[in-house]
Amino acid sequence: MRGMRIALIATVAACLLAAAPSSAVPTKKTDGQLVGSVGPGFTISLKDASGANVTHLDVGTYTLLVHDLSDLHNFHLTGPGVDVATDVLGNGDQTFTINVADGVYRFQCDAHPTLMKGAFAGGTATLPPTTTTPSPKPPHPITIGVGPGKRLTAPARLAAGKYVITARDSSATDDLHLKGPGVDRKTGVAFKGTAKWTVTLKSGAYKLFSDPHKTLARTITVN
Predict the structure, then answer these.
(1) How far apart are CA 2 and CA 8, in angstroms?
(2) Which residues pair with 206 in a beta bridge?
(3) What is the CA radius of gyration of the chain?
(4) Which one of 43, 115, 154, 174 has the largest count of C-beta atoms within 10 Å of its C-beta?
């Protein structure tokens, strides 16, 4: 009988030990340290512990160390459940504890938000695609001229757009006058030489002529 009681106690103790939570399993996950930096120039960044730029973080708790290196800028991080910032007029290091959830987080300098900014996605969120503004096309070069003698040189047709016009005036008795939608440029009658005009030509008709001799003229069609 005594042996049966000892065996029963041992069995109960073993069951209780098996049901108890293991102390080796953490109840809360801390994901690591982030390092933010702003200044001294117009630079702002957010990096992980390895020094890589942050574009995505798992959901969790993070320690954010901010190096504010300028009294002209600040580091301001916002997103779901997070709104922390250093002072624009101050500088130095500052530490925050943040909890990252599903969503997009953005950081910026409040004094220069369009120049100094960045973003990362948390959890299941993704960053929206970035749109790039295409670089403007350089102006097209063309040449027009008057002289020598009673003659004008110019293209008969052009596409609408921005142009850099080289105006060559080789006459001492005529000028070179270009007039049309949004444009009215000319050389002087006494002028001989080359002028540069940057103009935007719109759809329509442009007249190229000499002011002293109106019959010396031609039309440039733009479409």
Answers:
(1) 10
(2) 220
(3) 37
(4) 174
Residue-wise pLDDT for 49-102, tens only, equals: 999 999 999 999 999 999 999 989 999 999 999 999 999 988 999 999 999 999
Q: How far apart are CA 65 and CA 174, in angstroms?
A: 72
Pair 80, 102: CB distance under 8 Å: yes
In eight-state DSSP terms, residue 17 is H
Amino acid at 5: R
3-state DSSP call for residue 209? strand
Domains of the chain: 30-122 (2.60.40.420), 140-222 (2.60.40.420)
Peptide bond into 128 cis (omega under 30): no
Q: Is 76 exposed, middle or buried (0-12, 13-18, 19+ CB in 10 A)?
A: buried
Contact of 33 with 49, CB cutoff 8 Å: yes
Tell me the two tokens of residue 158. 């052009």
In this structure, how many other beta carbons lie within 10 angstroms of the beta carbon of residue 74? 25
